[in-house]
Amino acid sequence: MKNYLLIALSATLLLSLTGFKPIQRAYNDNFRRGSLEGVVECMRLNSNSVLSEEATKAACVGKHEIRLSPNGLEGKGGPRKDQENLSFEALLENERPDIVYTWVEINFVVVDADGTEKFHPVHNKVWLEPDATSEFNAVIDDFASADFVVERGCDTADKDKDCWGWGLGEVRGVKIK
User: Fold this and answer.
1) Are residues 75 and 49 in the same domain?
2) Which one, of 46, 48, 42, 47, lies nearest residue 63 by Cα?
3) Lower CB count within 10 Å: N or C terminus of the chain?
4) How many structural domains comprise the chain?
């Protein structure tokens, strides 16, 4: 009996010295993953004077985001050329009231004169709350600006050739519960 009491007192002392944060973090990581509540609690548990709030938020979002369906994520965009790079820019809109999108992949496709499609996926971090819009901009790494000569977008109904198009790939985010 004396040994059990000593073990219980030692465990209580150890937990009180750590502030119960390791237990709170483990609970949060395992039971709140994929939720906005998990991100908020992660930020609270990891706030300190060394990292900025934005750096803490980015780390917590990366830890808690999950793969989601792109349903409800709409947008308009296209390729943009500068002297060196070809990039993809879009204005994305979140029509979902229960999701915050945190990461978006866009599949940029170029169809050559023979009808052969070549995909160039690009991705970027975003913070896209419900009923809000966000700009998406990412450089297409495997495509030089000088090599892009196709000027018109594809009309998929006609199975166009010598054109470009895009669609949503993988998206990640957190659910609002």
Assistant:
1) no
2) 42
3) N
4) 2
